[in-house]
Amino acid sequence: MTIASALHPPALPHEHGAWVMLGATAVFGLAAAPRPGIAAWLVLPGLLLLFLARYAALPAALRLTQGKTSPRPFLVRRLGWGAAYVTAAAGLFGVALVLTPDASREAAIASASVVLGLGTLHAGLALAGRDRTAWGELLGMTGLAAGGPLVASAGGVAFGPNAIAPGILALAYFAATLAFVRAYRSRDGRERAAAARSLAAHAAIGAGLAAAAAAGIVPGPAAASFLVVIARAAWGAIAPAPSLRALGCRELAVALTFVVLGVVGLRLGN
Fold it and tell me: Do 162 and 269 form a contact (C-beta atoms < 8 A)?
């Protein structure tokens, strides 16, 4: 292995849904902070580096835990870049916490602990081959959604409704998307049953958001943006996407619309 090849980073992940979720988390966190300072902006590349670390190191770690033989250059490159990403992310988080206003530092530390703790647990599930279960994916999504409160608290939002609202809003979308995509993929002659499960999940999540809005935890306009996601489920039940490509295009349009409306709703709630 040459030095040049070792220094070349692994390819970026191709899971578009994961990129959309990461972006939604960051944008919601910024929207919840009226005047995000440098600490909030430092958290964003930190979250990105943690995201990249998983994709860099996991393939090599999986082969090691499964006892498979791997070329040494492959292991060195993958694990090396994973360690570099984690180290850089830890440095950014450390500086961000130092620069976080005193009033919200405790909330930022708590949010960072959730992000790192659930991220580590989800990586462990991946090594055990359980990360693709429904509850495993939901756990990973919860850790990702916690990045929203981390950005908001680093931006000066003390622990409370304004700090956790971006995480709740992001997780609601993530969970609904998980239910919708799983229902789509499970269509094997039981389309009505799959659609009913998806609609029931969306209704439950929507009811939860409505309750959070009534309790003053999530701004009403932000919770109302979830109607776009519910409409997506109804659209999918009435006219399912003919292919995964068409499904992806629909999901992108829904995600962008939801994020824009969610940002507006969070800003109105400040």
Answer: yes
Tokens of 68: 């498979």
Residue 7: Cβ-neighbour burial (10 angstroms; 0-12, 13-18, 19+): exposed
Q: What is the DSSP string of 174-233?
A: HHHHHHHHHHHHT-SS-HHHHHHHHHHHHHHHHHHHHHHHHTTSS-HHHHHTTHHHHHHH
Which tens digit of pLDDT belongs to each residue from 140-185?
A: 999 999 999 999 999 999 988 889 999 999 999 999 999 888 877 6
Token pair of 205 as six digits: 């999540």
Minimal CA–CA distance to 184: which of 132, 112, 119, 233? Answer: 233
Distance of CA 90 to the CA centre of its chain: 18
Largest CA-CA distance found in the chain, in angstroms, rounded: 60
pTM, full prediction: 0.89
What pLDDT sits at residue 189? 45
What is the domain partition of the chain in residue ranges? 1-159, 160-270
What tens digit of pLDDT does each residue of 77-90 get? 888 989 999 999 99
* Interatomic CA distance for residues 19 and 130, integer angstroms: 21
Tokens of residue 142, six digits? 């919860």
Query: Half-sphere exposure of residue 12, counting CA atoms within 13 Å on the CB side?
Result: 7
The terminus-to-terminus CA distance of the chain in angstroms comes to: 53
